[in-house]
Amino acid sequence: MSSSIPTISSFHQITWDPQQPVTIFCDIDDTVLSDRHSLENAFLTAQNEPDEIKRLEIYFRLMGKHEATDLEGFLALRERLKAGAPTNELCFLTARGMESHPETKEHLRSVGIPDVESYRIFYTNNWCEKGVYLRDTIFGSTALPSSIQYIFVDDNELHLQSVHTIFPQIQCYRFCYTRKSQHRI
After folding, report:
1. Which tens digit of pLDDT belongs to each residue from 29-83?
2. 105, 33 in Cβ contact below 8 A?
């Protein structure tokens, strides 16, 4: 990982010049949402059931649940954006497929993210690295207006390097969330 890409563990750590408009492209899976804790809880909860069929039913019922990695930080970021320039924007850029759009919105809602319909969500369908997607689909070139700050937040090093290489003017952040406590369902 390039040393020029800072690692953060909270959305509170994202900074920009408040005098200039900003657009933030934020990954979803393992950045805003995590299912690791739910999968672990599903396994721990299901393993205590002596009946194998019931154990599998419990596991599959619980494993699809998501949790927010840093809901408080995300909501604070959202408020900071609203308090700034009227053109400030937070978008999601995910490797998920476009067919997952209804589920993606439901996953975001289920962890407490309000006004999900107000966000633009871009889907790469895992067809390309996110830097390539930004260049070819969103911006149409590598020339970005200097009047807008751009920020990219992701947990995936390949996507971060892609954006950083194609758009050195975009501030990238590697999101590395560590769960603070373990809870059983």
Report:
1. 888 887 654 445 545 555 666 666 555 555 555 555 667 778 899 999 999 999 9
2. no
Q: What is the rounded distance in angstroms from the CA atom of residue 185 to the CA atom of residue 41?
A: 6
Report yes or no: 163 and 170 within 8 Å, Cβ to Cβ: yes
Q: Are residues 136 and 122 in contact, defined by beta-carbon separation less than 8 angstroms?
A: no
**8 A C-beta contact, residue 26 and residue 92:** yes
Calpha distance 112→110 (Å, rounded): 6
- pLDDT per position as a tens digit, 112-148: 899 999 999 999 998 999 999 999 999 999 999 999 9
Helix, strand, coil share of the chain (percent; to 5): 40, 15, 40
Cα-Cα end-to-end distance for the chain: 35
- pTM equals 0.81
The H or E element containing residue 103 is: helix 101-110
Four-residue CA torsion sign, 96, 84, 15, 20: positive
CB 131 within 8 A of CB 159: yes
Q: Are strands 67-68 and 33-34 parallel, antiparallel or unpaired?
A: antiparallel
Query: Which pair of structure tokens corresponds to residue 8?
Result: 């953060």
Q: How far apart (Å, rounded) are the C-alpha atoms in residues 121 and 150?
A: 16
How many CB atoms are located within 10 Å of the residue 95 CB?
20
Dihedral pair phi/psi, residue 11, rounded to 5°? -65, -15
